[in-house]
Every structure is written in C-alpha cells, then in structure tokens.
Design a protein that fits this description.
The complex is a heterodimer of chains A (about 140) and B (about 425).
Chain A: H1 2-25, E1 36-42, H2 44-47, E2 63-69, E3 72-77, E4 83-90, E5 93-97, E6 102-108, E7 115-122, E8 125-134
Antiparallel strand pairs in A: 1-2, 1-8, 2-3, 3-4, 4-5, 5-6, 6-7, 7-8
Chain B: H1 4-27, H2 32-43, H3 48-51, H4 53-59, H5 65-86, H6 96-125, H7 132-144, H8 148-157, H9 164-194, H10 200-232, H11 237-256, H12 261-270, H13 276-305, H14 313-341, H15 346-356, H16 360-372, H17 378-403
Helix pairs in contact in B: 1-2, 1-13, 2-13, 5-12, 5-13, 6-7, 6-9, 6-14, 7-9, 8-9, 9-15, 11-12, 14-15, 14-17, 15-17, 16-17
Chain lengths: ~140, ~425
Amino acid sequence: MKAILHYLALVGLPILGILGLLQLGSSLQAPASIGGIWLLQPADAEVQNADCAKLFTETAVPTLLISQSGIFLQLTMNTTEKLTLTGRLTGLEVVAEADTAVFQATINRESEPDSLTGKLLIPPCTLSLTGLRQPELQTAIGGH
Amino acid sequence: MLNLPLLLVQVAVILIVARLVGLLFRKIHQPQVMGEMVAGILLGPSLLGWVAPAVTLALFPPESLGYLNALSQIGLLLFMFLVGLELDPQILRGRGHAAVVTSHVSILAPFFLGTLLALFLYPRLSDDSVPYVHFALFLGIAMSITAFPVLARILTERNLLRTPLGSLTIACAAVDDVTGWCVLAGVVILVRADDGVMPLWLTLAGSAVYIVAMLFVIRPLLGRLETIYKQRGKLSHDVMAIIFLLVLVSGLITEWLGIHALFGAFLAGAIMPKNYRFVHTLTEKLEDVAVVLLLPLFFAFTGLRTSIGLISGAEMWFFCALIILVAIMGKFGGSTIAARVSGIPWREASALGILMNTRGLMELVVLNIGLEIGVLSPAMFTMMVIMALTTTFMTSPLLQRVYFGTFRPEETAVPVSKSISPEVPH
C-alpha cells in the first residue's frame, strides 16, 4: 500500500503538473517569426550616393539573413565586406548593431510575403531599405 | 555537385580531431565520446569558425554540407540500430519496485521541470511559428533523455555493471530510452501533423501497423538469422545484407510516416535476437564503421550548427545556466529522490541520480531532431548542447567523489543480463 502511494505521489502528481503547465502556457505569446532570408532593395537615390555605392557589389542581390532565437537576432548582410549585427526584436521593431553599423527596421506581417522597411547606418552612409522575406529559402545548417 | 576530394578531406580532418580530442579526454578520465562531442564543437563556428573563418569556409563550404550530413545520418541510423540492439527486456526482470518507480520518476521529474521552464523561455527564445505545446513538450523530453550507451560504457569502465547499483541504473536507463523515444516520436508526429506533411490519422494508423508488423511478423523471422548464425558460427554477408536492408527499410518507413528515420533504425535494433554471441558479433561488425568513422561526422555536423557566439550577453548566459540547472535538478534530483523513497541508501541513490543525469550523444540526437523540425531556435539549440556536454562531463568526477570514497564494487557483484556486453557502443 505504501509503495502504491509512493508511486502515485511520485508519478501521478508530475503528470497532473505537466497537463496543468501545458494548459497554463497555451495563452503565452511568442515573438513574431522573422527568421530566414530577406531580399533587400536599397533606395535608388541613396545607393548611388558616393558614400553608399561601395556597400553592395553590383552582381549580388542584396540579402539579409536573420537568425532568430526568440527576441534575440543575429543579422548577416552580404555587403562588400560581410556585415554581422546582433540585436533584438521588440514587437515588430528590429534594432541591431555591430561595431560600425546600426540597422533598424519595422516588420510588416500583413503583406504577403512579410516585408520590412528600415535603415542601415554605416557612417557616413545612411541607406533606406525595403525587404521581402523569402520563406522558401533555408540555410544549409538549418534552424529558424 | 559532389566534390569528392573535399569530402574526403572533411572526413579525414574530423576523424583526426575526434581521435585526438577523445584521447585527451580519456586522459582526464572522461569517456571517449565526450571528447568527440567537444571535437565537433571545436570544428564549428564556436572555435575554428571564430578563430579562422577562412579555413572554416574552405573546409566546410555550405554547399558541401549536404553530403557530410547524409554520411552522418547513415552513421546515426547504424548507431541507433546498435542502441536498440543493446536493449534487452531481460534487464528489467527482477528489478522490482525501485526500478519501476525510479525510471518513471527519472523521466517525469525532468519533463515536469522542462515544461515549467518552457513557460519562462517560450516568450524569450521561441517564436510564433512554434506553438507553445510543441515547445514545452520538446523541452520536457529533451530534459528527460538519458544516454543509455554512455551509461553502459561508464558502468563497464568503473566495474559497476554487475553491482546492484549498476543493474538498477541500466534497467532505469533502458526504460528511459524506450519511453523517451516513444514520447519524442509522439512530439515529432504532432509537429509534423501541424505542418501538414501527412494527416495525423495516417501517421498514427501507419505507425500502429508498422509496429505490429515489426513485433509480430519481422521479429519472429529474425529468429532465423540467429539460427543461421548458430549453425555457421559467423554472420555471413547475406545475413549482414538482410540486417542492413532491415535498418534502411525500417528507417525509410518511419521517415515516410512522418516520425523520423532514426526511430525505425532503433526499433529494428530492439527487435533483433538478443543472444549474447549474436549481439556481440553483430556489434563488432558494425561498430567500427558506425562509431569510429561515421559518428564523429554527426558530432562535427552538430558542431557546425552550434554557435556559442549566438549566446551573447549576460541575459542569454543566464538562460543557459538556468537550462543546465533545471536539467540537473530534474534528472539528478528526481532519480535520487525516487531511489531513496524506494528504500535505496542515500549514497547509492545519489550515484544513481548522477548516472541518470548523463545525457551524452543521445541528447545531441534529440536536439538535432528539434532543430530540424523547427521547434528549437539556433541559440536554444546551442544552450541545450552546452547542457548535454555539461551533464555528461560532470558524471565521472561526481561519481568518483560521491560513490567511490570507500566502496569497492567487487564486494557486492551480482549477475546481470549477459546482453550488456563490455564493448557497448558509445
């Protein structure tokens, strides 16, 4: 009898607890999913500016790879010199920084596919960007 | 296109680094597998990619990783087959109340704490493409995993396998393994059903038919392989071909059903005849290629996915520490308390908790599945890999300190199932 009571306490209670926790967490809200590859479109006038002209090579399509872990982001841009920024997602606002660069953007999830409007600041260049998410493109290593 | 010279260089480099780091870890009384797991991390962006990004890019260009991954997956299939092969229901016979309670609690306690932790981590480290239930269930199961093969290796090396503690631990780990993989299969089915890959009813019905066929049709047929082996005294190429085919077809079916190919390989191993000599010969034949050559590729691929740089700032390191703490509390605490409540003295109960806390490469297998099905984010994956390494690393020194102070295992040796060979895979 004692053994059965032990078993019920040690096994039954955690099962009830797990069911309760699953129920409790079902109303939790996670950050918006924005990870993956985005195709960028720099503003024409600005990209022809002497300060910004060397940022992107003429042959490659400007892309932004967002590696997302919840609110934590790692952004990689295929600029002439590969640029990696770390940042955060607050609501639908992205703010990311590297030593010499700042990227700010607002995500629009109403559009199809998702789009962004933002600015890349690499002094002395300030570049306005728009972007479209490419959900079908995955990275080789996997992840979000 | 396949770049064969590059692939050969990749395999050679991985093999050299895995053996060297494994050797170093053996010198500090850690299992070889621990060193090989660390070797994988060293080859990834956490060290080589950080110190010499140009070398990483030349050695592991993204377009070449598909082939490396394919080879590592073949290795994993064979390894999971070996893990299933090592499992023997005989282990559980006569272990009584303590084994039942301890094994069940050692799954449920970390599972409970994992789902509790999910409440805190979901809004911070996941995103809305992953439903909370998937995240919580996966975190729960990832916390519950015990590395049966690593445990068997540690128990053998420490001459504990034939002690009451060793036999109880191995019985609990076996139950954990089977239960863990079943629950994980359930979670994968749930996630993939939501992705619309295959209707849930078809997966469930197909899985039921597959399991029944494996247990009641294939398993009795496999008994003939054992008979042939006994008659000839060796495993012929024809028999080996049948076994390889079984692993591949079983893996193919579970992959097609939307579970994962690894489950098929595991079940194929689990239903094989458990005659000691048969298991030993088969293990010897497969182990060298699967464990020595191909498994380090899996560690390297895992290492390439693990970027410690993603854990930046005090906040993320706090999350990482919290994951490790919860994992240890759940597995070590749960197993120890359950064993103590079942009447096992504190020292043995603590030793059992320490051993059950070993996650080893089984955890890496589970985590890679989590990353592939999109339940784990890259940073969360890295944190969990660190947890797996930490809990595996701490086993040997803690066991030494807590258990081996005055105790000599030879004094209380009891027989255990012969199928636990002293040469278990990792």
